[in-house]
């Protein structure tokens, strides 16, 4: 077995448990709420319409947006709870809709007969209507189960581990093995669950036409076997997780994975029990530090300035660092110090293309822009510094395309776009032979890497002492080299971490 | 046994009446046929006897007691009901369908089994052959036999039947009609039978009640209705079986 695959498979129990726990909890809660609501809705047309319209509406909101909204409604709390709530909401529509149509599909003459021979309303429901509607209800649960398994992969983004960890981290670190393992695992889980519920549906269908249990032996054996397998998987992967002293967070890109792993290693070496929770979005993680669900991560001064403070203008590197540190302190977050490097945006072109057009700085781009297309990461074109760049240099590109960061680089390399919003410490800049264009008018902000800690962590002197050697120790070159190891050379995050550790530990 | 006293039923708050001011007394052991076209109020009248519908005004007495003053489920469990198209529970086998009411009444397992055996034999379905069969495996006639067995299982004195033989083919229907009449007389049941088939009413019923547009026009034996009809509609209704009988007789004679 290749070491890369081995490394990924070692993570399987943890992710499997996260995925199973989320799926079953959400599905269970979804059934517990949707079936009774469906029964009520089928009884009263006045409630049915608004109720079904509401759950349908929830269903049309993209899964990622639901997750973000739930996190916001919980006051920035991340982890299992928001993912569980979002998945539960998502699972409700098919179950509720099928409960309603299943009950409505019970033949009127059978219901009339039940009334006529003297079954009370509750007996009618339990003895006649539900058994006859059960196949349709179970079919709804089956649909919901497959959706839930798929959507649970997204919960990685709000800090709940699942097979999504494989997929998101794999995409960002160009680790195709991880993406493949994650996708196959999620697909296999979906198929197994579909088979289990499918066999339950088959049993319910036969029961609804009066077939005896004896003739359903095979399906029952299958269902019981699969249920036991799921239960064993949950139990075996269920390790008594000790409560960590600190949780180190990270956003979903390579540099953040390396830094989170580095910081976690430093704290572990100091004797702390540390957990990593990586792959969250900027807003989510910033709020998580404030609420103490994450204890440490690396933020960039320019992000705080532009995204959280919504400031415009560019007062210069030192000034931005100063103002943003004051801002986060006021928000109850604790800046531990600067790492030394900055990872700012820079417009980048393929060297060949830049020379062909004679472009050295952004200034040179302006007259050519109407013939060129630009690619940005998911945030870039929405930032104020992009607006400033446009107005200061009078830039107007023929096309502005948004990409996932990893795909943005492949797009410029393939010539699909001419200019991209590269990151200054990105290893791919050198690997793809890109040139960073000069910015003489200082339109683009500085992005100093800043360690931010929760209040609880910052008060612990051993915590700050463990991190002290990191401060100021990582240069732009060192960070770029570490990123390159992962993104370009296909080496693991732990190798890149070891490289940075060596630099930090080298006597200066 | 059953008394309807100035019973009225309106579904639209009094704008129109599905059943208008009806009085009717059915003595113990009588089989009364309620006949009329669809919309005549015959099924509504039947349903008011076990409170599947409740009268807007007037009183319904069963065994001398106002049905509105009795416990709804108890009332229904003590009155057998045979539905149009049998209305069997498709997810239960014959034994469980027949046992439905005795189970509700809390009979013991042994008693239920013994009684189920009895009523299945009574309707011509040997218990050992049919108990484990499911409704989907039975013919229409067999399903309706189970329907009758289910209605009789809890030993009711009163049986309500809503077009019980309407969906059956003529040969099966004739057989069941005769058999049922025998059972009814044997058990001394008081039966109200809703039908739109005058031949069926004449062949089975002690008395026939004719309804039209919510009104009870005339109640009487077949010969009373034939010889002394009080309304043109009754005359018309009686004409059809009479003409058919005459034609049949001529055809039979010619064949001899």
Automatic annotation (TrEMBL), chain A:
The protein's location, in the record's own words, is: Cell membrane
Chief location of this protein within or outside the cell = membrane
Which InterPro entries does this UniProt record tie to the protein?
ABC_Gly_betaine_transp_sub-bd (IPR007210), ABC_transp_perm/SBD (IPR051204), MetI-like (IPR000515), MetI-like_sf (IPR035906)
Gene3D superfamilies recorded: MetI-like, Osmoprotection protein (prox), domain 2, Periplasmic binding protein-like II
Task: Tell me which residues make up the ABC transmembrane type-1 domain.
Answer: 16-202
Q: Does the keyword Transmembrane apply?
A: yes
Q: Which domain of life is it from?
A: Bacteria
Write one Pfam family the protein is assigned to.
Answer: OpuAC
UniProt keyword annotations, A-Z: Membrane, Transmembrane, Transmembrane helix, Transport
Q: Name one GO biological process term.
A: glycine betaine transport
Please give one Gene Ontology molecular function term for this protein: transmembrane transporter activity
The record lists the membrane-crossing segments as 20-39, 132-158, 178-198, 219-238
Q: Does the keyword Transport apply?
A: yes
Report one GO cellular component. Answer: ATP-binding cassette (ABC) transporter complex
Membrane topology term: Multi-pass membrane protein
User: Would you identify the family this protein belongs to, as annotated?
Assistant: In the N-terminal section; belongs to the binding-protein-dependent transport system permease family. Belongs to the binding-protein-dependent transport system permease family.
PANTHER family according to UniProt: GLYCINE BETAINE/L-PROLINE TRANSPORT SYSTEM PERMEASE PROTEIN PROW, OSMOPROTECTANT IMPORT PERMEASE PROTEIN OSMW
Protein name, UniProt field: ABC transmembrane type-1 domain-containing protein
UniProt organism field = OM182 bacterium BACL3 MAG-120619-bin3
TrEMBL record, chain B:
What keywords tag this UniProt record? ATP-binding, Nucleotide-binding, Transport
> What InterPro entries does its record include?
AAA+_ATPase, ABC_transporter-like_ATP-bd, ABC_transporter-like_CS, P-loop_NTPase
What the entry lists under Pfam families is as follows:
ABC_tran
Residue stretches making up the ABC transporter domain: 2-238
Say which domain of life the source belongs to: Bacteria
UniProt KW Hydrolase keyword? no
Q: Is Cytoplasm one of the keywords UniProt gives this record?
A: no
Named from the GO MF annotations, one term is: ATP binding
Q: SUPFAM superfamilies under this entry? A: P-loop containing nucleoside triphosphate hydrolases
Q: Name one GO biological process term.
A: quaternary ammonium group transport
Q: Which family does it belong to?
A: Belongs to the ABC transporter superfamily.
User: Under which name does UniProt file this protein?
Assistant: ABC transporter domain-containing protein
């Amino acid at each position: 077995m290749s070491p890369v695959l081995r490394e990924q498979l070692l993570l399987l129990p943890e992710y499997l448990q996260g995925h199973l726990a989320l799926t079953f909890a959400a599905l269970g809660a979804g059934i517990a709420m949707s079936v009774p609501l469906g029964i009520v809705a089928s009884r009263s047309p006045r409630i049915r319409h608004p109720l079904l319209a509401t759950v349908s509406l929830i269903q049309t909101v993209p899964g990622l947006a639901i997750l973000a909204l739930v996190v916001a409604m919980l006051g920035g709390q991340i982890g299992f709870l928001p993912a569980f709530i979002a998945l539960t909401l998502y699972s409700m529509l098919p179950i509720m809709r099928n409960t309603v149509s299943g009950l409505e599909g019970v033949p009127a003459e059978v219901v009339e007969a039940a009334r006529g021979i003297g079954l009370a309303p509750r007996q009618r429901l339990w003895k006649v209507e539900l058994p006859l509607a059960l196949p349709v209800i179970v079919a709804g649960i089956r649909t919901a189960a497959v959706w839930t398994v798929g959507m649970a992969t997204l919960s990685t983004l709000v800090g709940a581990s699942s097979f999504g960890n494989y997929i998101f981290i794999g995409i960002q670190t160009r680790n195709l093995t991880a993406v493949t393992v994650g996708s196959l695992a999620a697909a296999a889980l979906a198929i197994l669950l579909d088979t289990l519920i499918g066999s339950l549906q088959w049993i319910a269908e036969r029961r609804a036409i009066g077939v005896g249990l004896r003739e359903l032996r095979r399906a029952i054996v299958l269902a019981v076997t699969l249920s036991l397998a799921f239960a064993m998987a949950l139990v075996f992967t269920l390790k008594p997780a000790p409560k960590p002293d600190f949780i180190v967070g990270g956003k979903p890109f390579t540099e953040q994975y390396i830094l989170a792993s580095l910081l976690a290693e430093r704290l572990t070496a100091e004797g702390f029990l540390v957990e990593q929770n990586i792959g969250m979005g900027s807003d989510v993680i910033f709020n998580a530090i404030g609420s103490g669900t994450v204890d440490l991560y690396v933020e960039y001064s320019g992000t705080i300035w532009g995204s959280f403070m919504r400031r415009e203008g560019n007062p210069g590197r030192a000034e931005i660092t100063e103002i943003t540190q004051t801002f986060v302190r006021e928000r109850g977050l604790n800046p531990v110090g600067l790492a030394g490097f900055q990872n700012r945006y820079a417009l980048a072109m393929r060297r060949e293309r830049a020379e062909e057009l004679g472009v050295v700085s952004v200034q040179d781009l302006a007259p050519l822009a109407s013939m060129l297309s630009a690619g940005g990461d998911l945030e870039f074109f929405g930032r104020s510094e992009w607006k400033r760049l446009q107005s200061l240099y009078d830039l107007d590109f023929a096309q502005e395309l948004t990409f996932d960061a990893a795909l943005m680089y492949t797009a410029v390399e393939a010539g699909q776009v001419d200019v991209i919003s590269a990151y200054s410490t990105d290893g791919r800049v050198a690997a793809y032979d890109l040139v960073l264009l000069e910015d003489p008018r200082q339109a683009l902000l500085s992005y100093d890497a800043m360690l931010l800690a929760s209040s609880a962590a910052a008060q612990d002197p051993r915590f700050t002492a463990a991190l002290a050697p990191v401060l100021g120790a990582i240069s732009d070159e060192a960070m770029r080299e570490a990123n390159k190891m992962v993104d370009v050379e296909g080496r693991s995050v732990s190798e890149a971490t070891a490289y940075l550790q060596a630099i930090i530990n080298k006597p200066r | 046994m059953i008394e309807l006293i100035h019973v009225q039923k309106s579904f639209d708050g009094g704008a129109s009446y599905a059943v208008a001011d009806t009085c009717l007394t059915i003595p113990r052991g009588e089989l009364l046929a309620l006949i009329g076209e669809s919309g005549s109020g015959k099924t509504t009248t039947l349903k008011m006897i076990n409170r599947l519908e409740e009268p807007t005004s007037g009183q319904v007495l069963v065994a001398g007691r106002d049905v509105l003053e009795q416990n709804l489920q108890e009332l229904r469990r003590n009155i057998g009901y045979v539905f149009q198209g049998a209305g069997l529970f498709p997810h239960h086998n014959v034994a469980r369908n027949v046992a439905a009411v005795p189970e509700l009444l809390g009979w013991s397992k042994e008693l239920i089994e013994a009684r189920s055996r009895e009523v299945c034999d009574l309707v011509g379905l040997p218990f050992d052959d049919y108990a484990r069969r499911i409704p989907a495996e039975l013919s229409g006639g067999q399903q309706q036999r189970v329907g009758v067995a289910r209605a009789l299982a809890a030993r009711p004195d009163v049986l309500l039947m809503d077009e019980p033989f309407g969906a059956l083919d003529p040969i099966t229907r004739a057989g069941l009609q005769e058999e049922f009449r025998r059972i009814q007389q044997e058990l001394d049941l008081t039966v109200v039978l809703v039908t739109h088939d005058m031949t069926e009413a004449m062949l089975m019923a002690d008395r026939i009640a004719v309804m039209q547009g919510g009104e009870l026009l005339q109640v009487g034996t077949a010969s009373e209705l034939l010889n002394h009809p009080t309304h043109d509609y009754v005359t018309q209704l009686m004409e059809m079986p009479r003409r058919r009988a005459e034609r049949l007789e001529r055809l039979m004679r010619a064949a001899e």
